[in-house]
Amino acid sequence: MTKPPKKKARDPDAFKSILTRMNVDGWRALRVLAAERDTTLNALALEALNDLLRKYGKRTVIENPLLGD
Predict the structure, then answer these.
(1) Which of 30, 42, 44, 50 could form a disulfide with 60 if both were Cys (CB 3.0 to 4.6 A apart)?
(2) Running DSSP on this structure, what letter comes out for residue 1?
C-alpha cells in the first residue's frame, strides 16, 4: 500500500483549524511566553498538542503546514 502524496501548505485540505477560548490572564501569559521564546502562539499550541500525543503514547505527527515544503 502506498501513501498518498503529502499535501502542500496552500492546498485547502492541507490543514485543519482549532478555535479555543481561554481567560484573559491565560492569553496574556501565552503571549508573553511566545515573545520570550521568539515564536508564535500557533507554534506553542502545536508543541503542546504534540506533547499531549506523546503523553498518551501516540506518535507526534502534528506539523505546521505553513512551514513545510
Answers:
(1) 50
(2) -
What's the confidence (pLDDT) of residue 14? Answer: 74
Counting Cα atoms < 13 Å in the Cβ hemisphere of 60 gives: 10
Q: Which residue has the cell 478555535?
A: 19
- Pseudo-torsion of CA 34, 24, 51, 13, nearest 10°? -90
Residues 68 and 31: their CA atoms lie apart, in Å, by: 24
Assigned C-alpha cell, 67:
512551514
Q: What is the dihedral of CA 9, 51, 34, 36, to 10 degrees?
A: -130
CB 63 within 8 A of CB 46: yes
Cα–Cα distance for residue pair 69/54, rounded to 1 Å: 25
